[in-house]
Every structure is written in C-alpha cells, then in structure tokens.
Amino acid sequence: MERKVAREFRHKVELLIENEAEKDYLYDVLRMYHQSMDLPVLMGDLKLVINEPKRLPLFDAIRPLIPLKHQVEYDQFTPKRSRKLKEVRLDRTHRDGLGLSVRGGLEFGCGLYISQIVKDGQAYNVGLQVGDEIVRINGYSISSCIHEEVISLIKTKKIVSLKVRHVGMIPVKSSSDEPLKWQFVDQFVSESGEKRSSVAGLASIGGKEIKEKKVFLSLVGTKGMGISISSGPTQKPGIYISNVKPGSLSAEVGLEAGDQIVEVNGVDFTTVDHKEAVKVLKSSRSLTITVLTGAGSELFMTDEERLAAEARRELERQELMHQKKVAMETNKIIKEQQEKERQRKMEISQKVAEEEERYKSEMEKIEAAERKHNREWEEDWGSKDRPKSPRSPKSPPPEMKTPKAKSSRASSFIEEEEEDEEDSQGFQKYVDDFDPYSMFSSDQIDGRDVRLLRIKKAGQLDLALEGGADSPLGKLVVSSVYDGGAADKHGGIVPGDELMAVNGKILIDATLDEGQNSLARAWNSGGDWIDVVIAVSPPKDYEDEVTFF
Predict the structure, then answer these.
(1) Does the predicted model carry a pTM greater than 0.70?
(2) What are phi and psi of 35, to 5 degrees?
(3) What whole-number distance in Å separates Cα of residue 67 and Cα of residue 27?
(4) What's the pLDDT tens digit per position in 237-262?
(5) Which of 197, 167, 201, 142 shows the shortest CA–CA distance to 55?
(6) Hey, is 93 helix, strand or coil?
(7) Which of 144, 217, 331, 441 would bridge 287 by S-S if both were Cys, CB 3.0 to 4.6 A apart?
C-alpha cells in the first residue's frame, strides 16, 4: 500500500513539476519533515514550490505521506479550494456597487480572479471570496478575454451573473515586464492580527504585510488633506495615494504614498473612477477613510526605492536558488548511497545465485556418483539382495601360521573391509569424489581432512553441537552423538568433529543458534538424505601401544 502511495505521488510530481531542481527541493523538504516532524515549517516550504494553481493537487497527493496524528492539522494549513462551480447574482445598480475588485485577463496569461472583497458588500454577502476564479459572466466564458473586455461585459447588464470556483490563489504582476507570480490569499493578516478573506492577497514589498487601516480626519480649520490621489493601472485598478505633503494632516495620521483607498465615509472606492473619488473626498469636512497600507507602493516608488526593491528580490531569488542547490546536492548524496546499497544487494544476490548453482552442481555430481556405484554393483554382483562376497558363509577362512600380532592386524583389516561392504548396501559414509576446495578456501580447510557425509533420514539425528563463531572455540563442534540415532548409525561423525556445512549452507561463521537451526531445518525438510560437511577431528595420542615379546 505504501509503495502504491509513493508511486502515485512521484507520478503526480513528474506530471505537474517540470523543473528538476524544484522536484529535488520538494523531495528534500518532505525528507526533512519526516526527520523533524515540524508541520508549520513543512507547509511554509511546500508553498515555495507549490506556487501556482496547477500544482495545488500536490497538496492532496502529499496528504497520505503525512502521519495520521498530523493529518487534521495538515488539512487546516492546506489552502482550501473547490472544483465545483458556484453561481451568484449581483445588482450592478446597487448604491454600494458590486463590492469586489478583480485582476487578471488573457494579456497576463491567466484567468480572472477576485482580488478584493468589501466587507458587508454585495459580493461579501453572497459568499464570494478573495481567490475565487471567475469562469463565466452572464453565461459567457471569459477564458479568451482581456481585462478590459471583462469589465465591459460586466457593465452590459444590470444584474450580473457570475460563475466562480475557489482556487485560493491570486495572480500578482506589478509591471508588464515582470513574470506572472501567484500568492496564497491566507498569507496576509489585518491590523488586529486576525485572518481576513476580505483583504486582497497582493504582493508585498520587502516582505511587508498588507494591512487594513482606518483613519479619521477633521478638515475644519485646515487647508486640506495634504495628499494627491491617482488611479491604478489596468492590471491593478483602484484609487491610490500618490503623494503625501510633509507636516500635513494626512501625514500626521500615518497615510503614505502607495496606500490604496478602499472606502471613504461608507463609499466603496474599489469601483469608482478618479473624478468620483475626488468629488467624495471634497464633499465633507469630516472623513472616515479605510486604506490598504502599501498595497500600491511599487506604483509610486522613487528610483532609489525601486533599486532597493529589485535588490531585495534578487537576494530572495539567490536564497531560494541556494536552498534548491543544497537540496540537489543532498539528494545527489542520497542517490549515490542508494546506488551503492543497490550494488551491494546485487552482489549478494549474485553470490547467493552462484552458491545455489554450485550446490546444485555438487548434488548432481553426488547423484551421478551414486548411480554409477549402483550400476557397477549391479554389473558385478547382480541384484542388491545377493551376497556381496563370493565366499560361502559356512566356509571358514584358512588358518594363517603367522604371529599373533599379524593375525590381529589381518583380522582387523578383514573386519574393516566387511564393514565398508555393509555400509555400501545402505549408504556411503563418505563421498569419494568430494572436493572441499570447491566450497572452502585453503585457509578455512587449513590442511584438515574435510569430508562430505550423506546421512539417511531415519528417526532422529540425535546430534548435539557446542561452540559457534562467537564462542571461545570459534567454530561449531559436535559435542555428542547419541546411541541409536541416525548420526550414530551412520558412523561417520564423532564428537570433536567440526560442522562446516549442511545441505550446501556454509556454517564457518555461524553462531551456535544458527548452526542448530540450520541442522534442524535440513533434517525436517523434504528428501531422504542430509548432506553434512565436517572437518575430522585429529586422532588422540594413546599410551597403550602394542608391545612384542
């Protein structure tokens, strides 16, 4: 399930983000979040890369990657948007106007968005929000309309029908030569610190927040307000303060060049032209003015201020590029580590495959040797039920007139030969053509007698081990062979022998638990035989030597 979610997320990233540096930055901030679990920091970082409406679906794709304990908080931080269209009707002849401002158009490479809502106005009361995209006006699609055409379309009827959908972002373009940017509408707060959806999400200069401010002016006994006003450009309509006379009443109450006047004595200034605005300002000696501080600062900058703003933007751009560069370098290091890990796993898999192939080849050799032995036996002696010796059991061997000691050696030799013949009827104690150097290095063999035993599975193995690679012995050693067990019946393994491999699995570096588990699994698995490789323990020196008199 987790792999599917990650795969879908990566597919969405590849689809929506073309810039490789931004992709790496996104992966990096998610990786840092899973280390720090700091959700507010994550959301701030995400908004640096999810910076246009077409990338907003990435918020939904990231949500399954967020731990359950943070998902509710994540939903609160995530910009709200809607895919459904909402239709509202506004009366253009209303004395307070429509109560909204719009920005955008075909000439700016974007749709038309609501950039400002007047509180308690028509638009506010029908539920329109800053960040709504206007899709249709009076039934007409406006996707191919420039800004002026949209304004003309609004003025054609008294009742304006709007179809909108909430995106949660608005376009920002201070001048025609600047690239189009986008801002989230919830990044600005009012004077009281409360979030306001009625304030336009405009680009601020030098990171200064745009706030709503209300001032009271009494012009009785004064020469005037001491300000000049101007209408904003097409892409940024409205009435703005273009100049404030030092020492004037307006300067005393804190009005500044670049402030946008949105209301005077209850009259909405977002839709009035310059002539009407001047008339309202001169109509009374007592004024209550509501402004958006600094909303049009970039329109009335001096050359020095413009250069300073451009320098700040360049610093911000360089900082973002530095962050992306660090993210790319970090991502490169991680990719190199992942590649090394992948290579290591491939080498391990290759070695395992080679080991399995070698074991399979060894088993084929053993089986071929066993078939050859059985075939030769059949050719020499007939069926396996016939006696192995041509000598009649009733005919005693002739007496040898030799010394007792020699007679003892001869009889011992005959007994060993008969034992070997009896062993070959059921199984071989040792595989003759086994090459220990095909499994172990010269250092591991160390000149010892290494043998491959084939023990028939009958009853219990009854074999005990001690030691292990992590013990003082440094190896797995047979500690006991119990009477009557399969190991005892085989006779090829005795206490003191080192257990080196079981069914092709090398146990040179195995602990005692690993060795016991490997032996148990091999014994309980399918098949009639178990293959055991041992290093024969060196013979002990006994003092009871044969003495001749």
Answers:
(1) no
(2) -85, -40
(3) 16
(4) 889 998 899 988 888 888 988 899 99
(5) 167
(6) coil
(7) 217
